[in-house]
Amino acid sequence: MPQTVNAVRIHEHGGPEVLRWEQVEVGDPGPGEVLLRHTAIGLNFIEIYQRSGLYKVQLPIVLGQEGAGVIEAIGAGVTGYKVGERVGYAGYSAGAYSEKRLFPAERLVKIPDAISDEVAAAVLLGGMTTRYLLRETYVVKPGDTVLFHAAVGGVGLIATQWLKALGAIVIGTVSTKEKAELAKQNGCDHVLLYSDGDIAAKVREITGGKGVPVVYDSVGKDTWEASINSVAQRGMMVSFGNASGAVPAIEPLLLSQKGSLFLTRPTLGHYVSTPEALQANAAELFSVIASGKVKPHIGQRYALKDVAQAQIDLASRKTVGSTVLIP
Ligand code: NDP
């Protein structure tokens, strides 16, 4: 039977005020789907891009890319899952800002016993992103010196710890002294404050003039210049986000002038496009957490209905680590 649940929906692009706490109808699961009751929802920067219109989405829409919860009903043809089971998902489709939702079973992952629903909702998106960035986009090797921006954000705190576990030397950037302290505690060997000035010059200093074989940049517009000037010859520039705004267009010739660089603009969906890739990616994330090498850090919790405030805090750089919304 269709049921009515609380959700946060937008009907137009705009500021946090367009996030509306509304009642939406959730039907019975169709073939291949489950009905999921969320127990925890992850907050991610992508929802700010989708709300503002930087990323176009079809309206109206219930935002939210990441959640964890319990299966309440199962549609025809679903195998391998049962009612009452704890599952999570990330990065497949919007709709997580809701008490309940329908979701394709083949895009779910089972949450191991040792991992709470909150932790799953906090790390699945950022953690699977970290995994593909460090293990596939550029394969980080022991001894590599790596520049990672926004080092104590949701993705950042997972990435700095994971980089250390891989034997890398981590240069992290942050905006405040407090964040710098947290970055150090989580494995950053060198922490640079943007306010300290020329990031690329400092990276060159640390690397004996060579630059780094890879830069991971999710800040975008504001750090592009420093990033591209920090990459070593034939190194890789990984631009994976736009927290400060989108990077303007560039000429391919620039990559030659800066040292025959590789430039990629990856997104999680393309690294977990098959169910097999999704399961392998999540399994590696859960295993690195189980090993204790990456310790999830939930910096903030908000009630789902207060997601506007949560987004304001994320966009104004007040948060650290992962943020969880409680339905
Ligand atoms: P974060 O928790 O990392 O928050 C963003 C951080 O970016 C801030 O805390 C801030 O850290 C830094 N920042 C620098 N400049 C600005 C600015 N002008 N406005 C706001 N923040 C700024 O967010 P998430 O962990 O959710 O995401 C991190 C990034 O990774 C985002 O850009 C996101 O889009 C991207 N991403 C990309 C994916 C992909 O597959 N391509 C998947 C997942 C995330 P500080 O104050 O220290 O500078």
UniProtKB/TrEMBL annotation:
<protein>
    <submittedName>
        <fullName>Quinone oxidoreductase family protein</fullName>
    </submittedName>
</protein>
<feature type="domain" description="Enoyl reductase (ER)">
    <location>
        <begin position="14"/>
        <end position="325"/>
    </location>
</feature>
<dbReference type="Pfam" id="PF00107">
    <property type="entry name" value="ADH_zinc_N"/>
</dbReference>
<dbReference type="InterPro" id="IPR047618">
    <property type="entry name" value="QOR-like"/>
</dbReference>
<dbReference type="InterPro" id="IPR020843">
    <property type="entry name" value="ER"/>
</dbReference>
<dbReference type="InterPro" id="IPR036291">
    <property type="entry name" value="NAD(P)-bd_dom_sf"/>
</dbReference>
<dbReference type="InterPro" id="IPR013149">
    <property type="entry name" value="ADH-like_C"/>
</dbReference>
<keyword id="KW-0521">NADP</keyword>
<dbReference type="InterPro" id="IPR011032">
    <property type="entry name" value="GroES-like_sf"/>
</dbReference>
<dbReference type="Pfam" id="PF08240">
    <property type="entry name" value="ADH_N"/>
</dbReference>
<keyword id="KW-0560">Oxidoreductase</keyword>
<dbReference type="InterPro" id="IPR013154">
    <property type="entry name" value="ADH-like_N"/>
</dbReference>
